[in-house]
Amino acid sequence: EVQLVESGGGLVQPGRSLRLSCAASGFTFDDYAMHWVRQAPGKGLEWVSGISWNSGSIGYADSVKGRFTISRDNAKNSLYLQMNSLRAEDTALYYCAKDNQQLAAFDIWGQGTMVTVSS
Amino acid sequence: DIVMTQTPLSSPVTLGQPASISCRSSQSLVHSDGNTYLSWLQQRPGQPPRLLIYKISNRFSGVPDRFSGSGAGTDFTLKISRVEAEDVGVYYCTQATQFPYTFGQGTKLEIK
Known about the structure:
Chain A is mainly β. Chain A has no helices and 11 strands. In chain A, the strands form 2 sheets. In chain A, strands 2, 4, 5, 6, 9, 10 and 11 form a 7-stranded mixed sheet that branches. A 4-stranded antiparallel sheet of chain A has the order 1-3-8-7, with no helix packed on it. In chain A, a hairpin with a 4-residue loop joins strand 9 and strand 10 (105-109). The termini of chain A are far apart. The model of chain A has no long low-confidence stretch (mean pLDDT 97). Helix content of chain B is 0%, strand content 48%. Chain B starts with a strand and ends with a strand. Chains A and B meet through strand 5, strand 9 and strand 10 of A and strand 5, strand 9 and strand 10 of B.
C-alpha cells in the first residue's frame, strides 16, 4: 500500500524549532519529488516547500524562506522539514505529498502532523 | 505568484443534482512544454486532500466518472454530474505550471 506518514508535530513556543518527518512506503521513494503543504485551522492549503528526487532542486514559499529547510534521505525513504524561528502564523496541519511528475500533481498525501506555535 | 480564484466559495446542492465549480488563474497555466498543469483536489471533512483530476481533465485512479474537468488557459471548471452524499467536502484547484505551486481558496460543497 502506498503510504505517507508524518510525525514530529507538537506544541512549541514562538522562536523555537521543530523537525517534521515523513516516512514513505509502497513506492520507489527516490523516483519522486516530494513536498510539504500546510493548512492552518479552518483555512485552505498552502504549499510550503518541495525537493526533487535527488535533492538537486529545492524551493520554498516566501513565508518560510530562510527559516525552514527541506531535506530527504532516500536510503531511509524519508522526507524532513526543519522549522526554525517558528511564529504563531506557522500553526497548521503539515502534510507531506508525493509529486507525480507524469501527472504534474500531488497524487498521494499523508494524514498530516499538527504544529501549534504558542506561548 | 499565480493567484487561483475559485467561485463559488460555497455551493449548496441537492442530492442527485449537478454541481459546478470554477477556477480562474491570474495568468495562463500553459507550460512552455505545451501542457497545462491544472488539477483538482477533494478534501472530505477530517481527511487529507485527495487528487481527483490532473492536467485539466484526466480523472485520477479510482475517481468516479461523475467527476469531470474542463477548461483552457486561465479558466477551468470541475463538474459533478450527480452529487452524492460522499461528495461533501472542500474542493481546491491547484497549479503546477510555475513555482511556487498555488491553490485556490477552496469551494465548500454541501447538501441542501
